[in-house]
Amino acid sequence: MTLTQNTGNSKHTERTEHGVARTSIRTVRRFTRADRASRSRGGQRFLLIGLVLASAYSLFPVWWLIVAATKNRTGLYQSNGLWFSGMHLWDNLRQLFTYEDGIFLRWTANSFLYAGVGSLGGTLIALAAGYGLARFDFPGRKVVFACVVGSFLIPIALLTLPLYLMFSAIGLVDTVWAMLIPCLINPFSVYLAKVYTEATVPFELLEAARLDGAGELRIFFSVVLRMMTTGGATVFLLAFVNTWNAFFLPLTVLRGEENWTLNLGLYNWTGKRLESGVDLTSLVLTGALLSIAPMAVMMVAMRRYWRTGVTLGALK
Predict the structure, then answer these.
(1) pTM of the model
(2) At the fourth CATH level, which superfamily is domain 100-315?
(3) Domain extents for the chain?
């Protein structure tokens, strides 16, 4: 379809102060459908180029990490950083799993424990709190909600030192609970649960369940949780990623290597080059590549919940 533009003439009659009519011709420009379609295609091309550039910017570090994990120490420092120079991935994996009696596997198990159990418990608490704020009327509800909103605006780094002092006073430093307890409380998850409850759980359904004789706990576990599957999956996924990537909190409250997270252990390996002269860069990069695999698996495994949420929003 070619770009066309129509130009028409319109007559305009005016009268002067002496009563003499004067006619002027004014040019009127009209845009056809071809003009609108061309401008629409131009906007789509611009949007497509922007999305391609954003995707390339996001995937570039992942590509570099994949390439670097396949190299040995010599290839890592003497070859092109964006292309392969020999396949040494399996050698790196074997060294990674056997170094220091397989301490990498212990760190991985710790990360799964902290992220999995902490996020699951935190999701249940957040859904219950969000449901209570959304569907129960009690004195001070607005004040409580304002405190929730204000709490997740505080950076976690500012809370790390008070948490350390509190755990140190009660003897929980360098224990599993020092990581699990902070993961159970997430104000932002409570906010998301409240918003999702208001959108998906109607008052009429709750009143019908109460008229049938169901208690509040049964209503929450049998009715509300089933309706909030998509919201719960979203809260769990965000909490899992946040806990899995946590660094400053475990650095502060965990001392022994047996309780370290994966990120903290890999960070410790990067400092061994300065302390003992042992270069573990290849192992660190291979471990970093493996550390992103659980989050990718979580995204793929929970994709149906994301699709359900998108469909629900479209129907509403």
Answers:
(1) 0.78
(2) MetI-like (1.10.3720.10)
(3) 5-58, 100-315
